[in-house]
Amino acid sequence: MALKHHPDKQASLILAEATEEAKQAKKDEIESHFKAIQEAYEVLIDPTKRRIFDSTDEFDDDIPTDCAPQDFYKVFGPAFMRNGRWSVNQTIPSLGDDATPVEEVDKFYNFWYNFKSWREFPHADEYDLEQAESREHKRWMERQNAKLQEKAKKVEYARVRTLVDNAYKKDPRIQRRKEEEKAEKQRRKEAKYLAKKMQEEEAAKAAEEERKRKEEEAKRAAEAALNQKKLKEKEKKLLRKEKTRLRNLVAPVVAESHFSLSEDDVETACSSLDMERLKKLCDSMENKDTTEKARLLRGALSKEGSSGTSNEGKKIQANGVDGSKAKSTSSGEKVTQGNTLSNYEKKEEKPWGREEIELLRKAIQKYPKGTSRRWEVVSEFIGTGRSVEEILKATKTVLLQKPDSTKAFDSFLEKRKPAPSIASPLSVRTETVGLPTEKASGDASSKAPAQPASSKTSDEKAPAPAPVSNGTPSGTADPEAWSEAQVLALVQALKAFPKDASQRWERVAAAVPGKTMVQCKKKVAEMQKNFRSKKGAE
């Protein structure tokens, strides 16, 4: 076609024209026709341009919305066939008819719900890429055109989705399946309800039967208890009757005291004999004389006594056997315990002395952990023949023991240094009695004649000095005053007897000479107060 309509091939048509103007017009017509052929060819060979060209064809975009059930296939069938031309996958399933299987119907709707269209939407506002001034301008045009295309495709997919939704709602096959599913669901619900109701009825029936059974059992038990009670009452009544009968039969015997029988013997027989034996005894006494009745009663009492004695003898014998077994067992246990105690005494270790404990402490400090053959070396250092096992045990027991607090006071008194003696300047004192002062003598001489003063001669001995306690004269000492020796003794006693020591303040007071427990407590409180005040001042 290009060769046929090429302008060079159409030169004869141009020359056939008479005038120049006609020739020029013919030439323009031939060239425009050839250009149209070229443009059409370019569109046909380019898939994108061809898709765009095909998309510009006139197309009915109307979507059916409602129809009668019998017209469903006539209305929606052509609509699906018409829109199927835009599908990328050209294997388009058919809508079918009323006899189409449900599986084929599901495939049809799955295809259209996943529909992909190749339709292009050339927009009037699109940019012509051939008119781009630069590469960046062309890319910007492409982005703008892509946005317009995306928007148009969304509208197209919404239109197709509306078509599929309308068809799915009006499809009689889908409606029948929904009704069947609804009916099946209702049927299962009713069956479940009936099964539950039947189960509840069976449970109620079983509960009612169980209740009736329990009532029957309770009724039978009550009747049995009542019959048993009546039977016991009857037996008691018969027993009372037989006892009364026996008493009446042996009344002459008791009155005449045959065989030394008394009313107590009769009551013993009534209480010890059971119903059958009592009835048998009464029957044997009928129509008998008094002596025979007494003999029968004595025989019954003696027989009852012998049977009771034999039973008691059996019990005592059984208890005796058990007692002998218990005694033998206890003696065996004692022997076993004695052997165990003797073995324990044999295995008892030799106690550790104070010197051994001190040597053990020194050895542990001298030979620390990591020493080669440490415990053998420690045993040799102690030198008392202690084994390694004894030394290991002593490190966990003897060395961890706290010192005895009861002996702490004795050790304190032994280690305490004697209090230093303080020489008092008042150890020797000379007293002069009756020597008036000069002023006094002057006054006396002016008022009266002087009297001879009586004074002790130098040969007389001076009075003995007052006793000194802890360096303080007792005659002039303050009981609340503390000497240095007493304070030192108090401090040492507080160190020797800590707070957790038993009878602490009694021992502290005993260690401080001349002071009571109350004075020691008061002094300690005063010392603590002075210490806090000094510390606060610093």
Automatic annotation (TrEMBL):
InterPro entries: DnaJ_domain, DnaJ_domain_CS, Homeodomain-like_sf, J_dom_sf, SANT/Myb, ZUO1-like_ZHD, Zuotin/DnaJC2. Residues 326-343 have a biased composition (Polar residues). One of its GO terms (biological process) is 'de novo' cotranslational protein folding. Residues 169-233, 290-352, 411-481 are annotated as: Disordered. SUPFAM superfamilies: Chaperone J-domain, Homeodomain-like. Pfam families: DnaJ, Myb_DNA-binding_2, ZUO1-like_ZHD. Residues 482-523 form the Myb-like domain. It comes from the Eukaryota. Residues 444-456 have a biased composition (Low complexity). One of its GO terms (cellular component) is endoplasmic reticulum. This is Uncharacterized protein. It comes from Oryza nivara (Indian wild rice).
